[in-house]
Amino acid sequence: MNFNEISTLTEAQAREYLEQIRWPTEKACPRCGSVNVVKLNNTAVGSRKKREGLYNCRDCRKPFTVTVGTIFEGSHVSIRTWLMAFSLMCASKKGISSCQLSRMLDVTQKTAWFICHRVRYAMGKEPLKGMLRGSVEVDETYVGGKLRKVNNLGFSHAKRYDNKTPVIALVERGGKVRTKVTANITARNLKNFIRNNVLTDSKIYTDEYRGYKGISAYFNGGHESVVHSRYEYARGDAHINTAECFFSLLKRGVMGSFHKVSKKHLQRYCDEFSWRWNLRKIDDEERTLRTLRQMEGERLFYNEPLRKAS
Ligand SMILES: [Zn+2]
Questions:
Q1: What is the CA radius of gyration of the chain?
Q2: CA distance to 141, 243, 262, per residue, from 175 (Å)
Q3: What is the tens place of the pLDDT at every residue in 1-15?
Q4: Cα of 40 to ligand 1 centre, how many Å?
Q5: Whole-angstrom distance, CA of residue 55 vs CA of residue 27
Q6: 25, 128, 211, 264: which sits with the fewest CB atoms below 10 Å from its CB?
Q7: 66 C-alpha to ligand 1 centroid (Å)
Q8: Alpha carbon of 231 to those of 43, 226, 235, 244, 247: distances in Å?
Q9: pTM of the model
Q10: Residue 69 φ/ψ, nearest 5 degrees
């Protein structure tokens, strides 16, 4: 369903749509996995308030709805609003700010911010499907922070970077991207990240940063670098333009949509951009559906949206 279709749904239809995505074949209890479930009349005797879409598990004898055990659990936001948020975030190439989302969905900015982070959590949950292979570009960048003036003469090089957060990206040409937010960029950090995510018969392309020195020893395809300081951006196949393209999208999101991204949450934003990048070849509707399928997960709380997946 696209955004238009979702926005015309009633809450009951939205719930039904979510049930279809979560349980394509049979409804199953989220606690014990049993399919021996029965739909409850939500005005049943003894129930204090009406609860929509309630089922009961005959094995563990506990009631559940489609949102139990998902990122929607315990949320007072309507399912239709959640679906619209998923759709908007999956379709916005450069990201969408919580302020904008709050206006479009008619919720407070605080609620919109939280919705965004839960959706990012779902996006970052993608199980790693194998290692990167082939031609892999590696690049590092610094995101966020403000230039700090050290004296009247201007900005020192060190001060220019000390309140920015380094991010490393591995981009397989024609394939997927992996990102990592680190405390600082060191040769060890770079090499570990590359070796843990790239198959050994690949070829590595980097810029001239000295932290990459010696990486060719681990990869049969070898290592080539371009020297940006000498205005060399491509030498035949040797370039990191794909990785720089990814970073430019990320930075446009940070500067143009989010304006400010805290260090603590930067990995979430990187996950969002990687997710859209990795699914760039399918259309917005399909991407929304793929993201919704990852709704199951630990419940997140407002003040700890960064809690790790189990
Ligand atoms: Zn059960």
A1: 23
A2: 20, 11, 28
A3: 889 999 999 999 999
A4: 14
A5: 9
A6: 25
A7: 13
A8: 72, 9, 11, 15, 19
A9: 0.85
A10: 80, 15
